[in-house]
Amino acid sequence: MAVVFPLTLVLMGRTGNGKSATGNNILGKKAFVSKKSSSCITKTSTFEKCVRNDGQVINVIDTPGMFDSSSESGSTAKEIMKCMELGSEGIHGVILIFSVRNRFTQEEEATIQTLQNTFGSKIVDYTIVILTGGDEFESDEDIEDYLSRECPLALKDILAACNNRCVIFDNKTKSEEKKDEQVKELLELVKEIIDQNGGQPYKPPLISNQKLAKEFDEVKTKLEHFCTQDFNSDPKLEEKLNEFMLEVSNTLERQLEEEREARRQVEERTLKIQKQYNDETQKLNELLRCSLQRPPPVPVEVEQQSERRLRIQSLFTSFKRLIRQLLF
User: Fold this and answer.
1) Which of 231, 238, 258, 295 has the fewest CB atoms below 10 angstroms from its CB?
2) pLDDT surpasses 60 at 211
3) Where along the sequence do coiled-coil regions lie (predicted)?
4) Which residues of the chain are in CATH 3.40.50.300 domains?
């Protein structure tokens, strides 16, 4: 792998899929808190880095369970903004983490829609899927075997959107060789993404703090240059200085306003989408409750009633899934 500049990877997935453990294996050290839990261990987006033996620097951003059904709208919006800030210099890979052990949820089924509505449609060009639970695979099994055997249809759709970029991770293995092979396979896919995108990382549409700091440094340098000039010998210098300061002030004010507006739009969009979904789900649940409580027009067998209930529940589950996909 010939990439020498730092690579920034963002880990996303719901609680219990092994995000933090995967991040630790990528980094080759225990940087993120990782333990089995039904509640979110990672409370806020965190940033860690490592230098591999070949000199490659890898930055890893671990995020909370953004696709958890229990995620609150406000906290999700804030974490999206923080994730954007941490990756403001460019994201080389968005790593979606799913587990072969866990049931695929409605929130996960809408993953691609959520990503595109939040980060823009181009984000899928930088997305890779990692399937954790690799220890459950037989030694001669690969991803193709899993896809043909028991892969959820929604996951197949996600893989298709990501151009089938997928790696199987065994986070329980004690074999350093296997750990290294997994990471190498992932980094090869990241390199493929970089090549396909002309060497350019994905950059969130926000002004970074680093960029503002750089511009302030440039302004400081120019001001220091003005200070070395003899204002008495050149009466126009003061006028030039005032014009420069006014230009700088207007430029920075405009950039800060653009950033504030971008932040506001992302937060509002996230809150609106989640509120729509919650409202529609509540309506559907109420319709389902009323439908199941309504007595049948003619006597039917108990077994037929049970089958009817199951059919209705299945119909509403499918409809709720469709509503979420449309909203996200």
Assistant:
1) 295
2) no
3) 242-276
4) 7-196
